[in-house]
Design a protein that fits this description.
The chain has 169 residues and is of the alpha/beta class. The protein folds into 2 domains: 70 residues, Ubiquitin-like (UB roll); 83 residues, Translation initiation factor 3 (IF-3), C-terminal domain (Translation Initiation Factor IF3), CATH 3.30.110. It contains 4 helices and 8 strands, in the order ββαββαβαβαββ. The strands form 2 sheets. Strands 2-1-4-3 form a 4-stranded mixed sheet. The longest helix is centred in the middle third of the chain and has 18 residues. The radius of gyration is 29 Å and the shape is rod-shaped. The relative contact order is 0.11. The model has no long low-confidence stretch (mean pLDDT 89).
Length: 169
């Protein structure tokens, strides 16, 4: 249930006939008035669970307990989510071979961890006049990292830099 979705309980349920389930008990198909009477006798509420079914499915339980269960399910779903971050690695066009290997290893570790990598080749001053010459360099970088990652956003020139995004295979 989404936070903005409203839960229909007791007299708010617009259906005449419903399928009622309790905690471990199946009451079957019954009139809404009979269900409300039964709920009042037991000190519980009739909660609409699924209005897509024919007849709609309702549950006989305390509303506070129902809300608590929903919160628990949402919390559990959030635990199982994984958030993919994008880490940026900046390099310059006159990077030394050894420094480039260090950056490649760093990118490998980031991708193996599950995050995406944005590789940015930054140019300064007159270096920018030779930007086109470095597109094959970036493509070769992607080929070198193809054992762990793949290109998500291809190589493109953005202002004074060339960038591409890589993600784990």
């Amino acid at each position: 249930m989404a936070k903005n979705e409203k839960v229909l309980i007791n007299e708010m349920i617009p259906y005449r006939e419903i399928r009622l389930n309790g905690e471990g008990v199946n009451y079957g198909v019954m009139d809404i008035m009979d269900a409300l009477r039964l709920a009042e006798e037991e000190g519980k509420d009739v909660i609409l669970i699924s209005d897509n079914a024919v007849p709609p499915v309702c549950r006989l339980m305390e509303f506070g307990k129902y809300k608590y269960e929903l919160q628990k399910k949402e919390k559990e779903a959030k635990k199982k989510q994984t958030v993919v971050e994008t880490k940026e690695i900046r390099i310059s066009p006159n990077i030394d071979e050894n420094d480039l290997e260090v950056k490649k290893n760093m990118m490998r570790k980031i991708m193996l961890k599950g995050d995406n990598v944005k590789v940015t080749l930054r140019f300064r001053g007159r270096e920018a006049s030779h930007m086109g010459d470095y597109i094959p360099f970036m493509e070769n970088l992607a080929i070198d990292l193809s054992d762990v990652g793949m290109i998500v956003k291809p190589v493109r020139i953005e202002g004074m830099s060339i960038s591409m995004s890589l993600a784990r295979k």
